Amino acid sequence: MKIKVLAASVALFCLNSGTALADTSLNDYIDQSIGNSYRIKSLMSQHDVEKIRLEQEDKYYLPSFKIDHTTKTHMEDGRDEVGIDPWDNRGHESNVNLRSNIWRDNHSDVYSMLESKADASGMNVEIEKSNIRAQVTTSVYNIFLYESLIREGEDILKTAKKIDADIRNKVKGGLAKASDRTTAEVLITDMENAILATKLKIKQLRLNLEQVSGIPYPEDMKMDIAAVDALIGKTKIGDINNNKSLRKKALEVQAANKSIDTADNWISVDLYAKTKAEDLTFNRTDSEVGIMVTMDIFNPTNYWKEKTATSQYMSEQYLLDQMREDMKLSLESQLSILDSNRRLLDSQEDSIKIKKDLIKERQNEYQINVTSLYELIQAWNGYYLAIQQKTDTEATLVNTMLSIDVLTGEI
Prior knowledge:
By secondary structure, the protein is α+β, with helices and mostly antiparallel strands. Strand 2 (75-77) and strand 3 form a beta hairpin. Helix content is 69%, strand content 12%.
């Protein structure tokens, strides 16, 4: 029994340890950000309001039930006296009314209009979720890229400090000039400043990200370069037809179109039942059940409603057309930026390879006193600058690709 208890305790410890040590994935962080968004909660509540209105229209036939009671007192106004009859002489009347609208000719139009409005309201939620996904993904990927740049800088800084230590020994032994030591210190200072500037950029990215997500950036964020490469190397690009803002506007246009038909209601049919009693005991009653057909032959209010709804529909349609054209131009612009930066990235990668080879050559030449320390330091500076430029280009590609995904509704 003790062995079983011990085994269970060990298993529980391992489970808890595994949970504690588990890295936070990007999807987990996005889900937490969406879950903590009060704006999304507000939009979801507004969506619920529209769905309730739709349900109300769907159940338009539900009857209304009313009871009213009236006590009537007859005033006496004769030649001899003016007064009120005693209580026993007062009249009482009670009415029980039940009414249900069993059919009206604009029900399907009203339902379709409210359905489009509810769907448009639901798209607001999806649009906000997409915006959060895009902003969080952009910031997380950029943080990862600049953290990688810092690691490159720290490796170069270690090399610079080794060079500095070697130069100091050579200066002491009279094998190098004092200016060589200063040159090595310049490389160290430049790298320290570059690393500090990148750390400040990461700090700003984290602050912006936490404003979007509403939660601190996890230190154990799990990310690898493969995810970034997959995004910036993506070749399959959609079109704007799936853009969520465009789809929302199309639903609003549908609702505006249907509102034209809802402006008038020519015929409605009501089922009613009522009971009338003339005393408090309901002993004397008059009951009836009937069907009432109402025909709205001419109503100026409906005419003006229809004209207003038609103009509103045209306005919404023009806005949809303009939005579609704007998004087409925006997508073309982003695709052009994407293509230019991809070609730039290829060129920068080739440049980095050349500069890396140059460093090896300079190091070998420096060892045999063929080249100066200054030229070696310049090679290292040029190499880091190339990596820095490549990182900036990758960050631009991430921003551009995610902007395209938002435009095409793929995120």
